[in-house]
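Build the 3D complex.
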Amino acid sequence: MTTAAWPRPLPPSSLRAALLALMLFLSSAVAVPSLARAEPAAAPEMPTDQGFPILVHVGLAMTKLDAFDESGGTFDATVNLRVRWQDMRLAIPGAKPGEAPLTLRQAAAEARLATMWVPPVVLANLKGESEVLATGLRIYPNGWVELMRRTRGSFSTPFTVSRFPFDRQALTIDIATLDEPANILALRFDQSDINFSRPARDLELFGWTIGAIDLTLKPIAAWYNTVNDQVVASLEIARQLGEVAAAIFIPLLASLLIPLLTIWLESVEKGKLQSDPVDLLNINIGGLFAVVALNFTIYTGYVFLSSGDNTVTRLFALNYAVLGVAFLINMVFSRFRVLETAFGPYVQEQAYYFLMWAVPTLVVILAAAFVLTAIV
Amino acid sequence: MTFRRSAPVTLCLSVIVLVTAMAAVAAMLFTRLTTAVEENQFQLMRAIVETALANASNKALATAELIASLPPTQPLMAGGDRKALLAEFAPMFAIQKARHGVDQAQFHVPPATSVLRLHEPSAFGDDGTASKPMVVAANRDKAPIKGIASARNGPAIFGVAPITDANGRHLGSFEVGIAFGPLLADLKVAYGIDLALFVDGELLREFGKNIAPERLGEDNRVGHYIRLETTNAATMAALVEPSDLAVVTEPVTYTRDADGLVQGVVLIPLTNALGAPLGVIAAARDFGDSRAAWGRSMVWLATMALVVMVLLCGIILIVVRGFVVRPLQVLGEGLVSLANGGPLDPIEGSERFAGELQPFVELYDRVRLRRARAGAPS
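Done.
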């Protein structure tokens, strides 16, 4: 009688190496959420019986939109990715047209997928961890395969606020083939995929109006002068104005009045300015503090507005510029009386009368231009 | 009327008119530039669609001619052996259908009697003289022909090649039809253009026996047309209305707002090889960028014009009133006081008055000083 020998305990260094390998394996599995999740020992070969490129049809429907983080340029969503391809090795010879497909779900689908070739299609802009909520597989008698995966995750998306608050954004999901060049594996979408690619009827995102999903083919450059196919599914959303206008634009436009007050408060008599320049300067400095505080408040609440050129940064620039102009007028006219010294009191008087209406007019014109360029 | 008011008003109005005229000319130039860019976009869209249709018809005809000239085709057609034809060409058709958008393939004998439909082998023997004018023409003229036609599976782009035996005897024809659906989807993939195919409803009901009834339903009805294929149903429904399709005898272009975006639309009439109207292809592209650029140009142009007007009017007011009118007014008040025997105060800042006014200032000062000396206690 023989007894099976117990495996000897591993030395500590081997144990550490094994743990490290396990961690690396787990991290790589999380980082690239490919459709072929469980990589079989010997991967089935791609179906070459119809030549290259193998056409893989993709479509994407959005079932849930949990959040849109404008500061981070990410959104959390649940999507249904549909991938279709034809593999004649799976066709049933002699099957009648219209015969029902083999339909598998969840574990059964995963088990079947492990035994067949699956196109290496990934959601390329998934950020962080994602979760596959459901898997469905249909294999039609004519060899067509339809794989559905419901995935929940956070997606990074390009984001520009140059037209804020009248902006429309495209929340993009990049469906890409990272392993095979386009001449081997090509992504396509047809009428059926276009019809499939739509947001759920009850999809909502606070502060935004939901539009349609558009599919576009945007190949990405790959190694050795090749390209990999990528289909970008873009959900159009349009910002709703109400809350933003009240929270940002009313104080921004109101703060423009502070430097204008210093111009209007001055009075002129026989070419002489009557106010004490120090009083006007104090109002200006108060205005400066108000704008700085507003600047800090808005950029803290809406971090994404703090970089780049947009309506808010332009209006802040206008605020600072008007404060500067008011300060300059105060210095030139009240403190140093430059025009009076150079051209006499009546030139200064008329110049000041002009500035009293011209500065507000120019401010209104520029503020309107900033807002209008965002609207058009 | 006073010079104080009339001179600045005249000068400012002149400035406003001139600046407005210059801004209007600049706006016109911008508008023309934008129109030219959009016109090029329309031409490009039209060229893309027409080239794709031409390529598809060439491809259909090339495939048809290739099959018609293959050695097995002629004896099988001469013998009318349907089963052998099906066995010979069914695998080829399956691949063409799966990968190349070939939707229909059919053998005919003159004038247009179906021998074998590779896409529907069970239906044969019917006379297509009424519905297949291209097949009739190919069999009559014994010459290849290509074009768009409506068939049992719906409209497609066809190529028809005559089949002749080694002795030159005409046996019939082979027809290949490429479906519109994959073609439109490919154009959307390649160029980002949304497209829709509108086909005469009567024509579809008469000949499109195999078209699913739901595709001919009210949801897809646009006037007397049926929207049979589209790459974006919602957008195209907003962009193409029954009145747009009422009369399309030549390419029509227009822009329309759909879901807040300005889209450029080209309507291209479709006719069969004999010139009879079949329907319309609509192609739409987002013109938002060119319209936004135009809008921004207009806003900045208007802004610059207004700023220039304000500044120039300001300069006019300061020069006319500050250098001339106000000194004259102050001097006039002094001289009136002088004539009336009123009090004569020194004129503030008179040393900065223009040189032309200085003689009056000196006169006033001399009289004021003389009076002051005369009135001063000795």
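The first strand of chain A starts at residue 54 and ends at 69.
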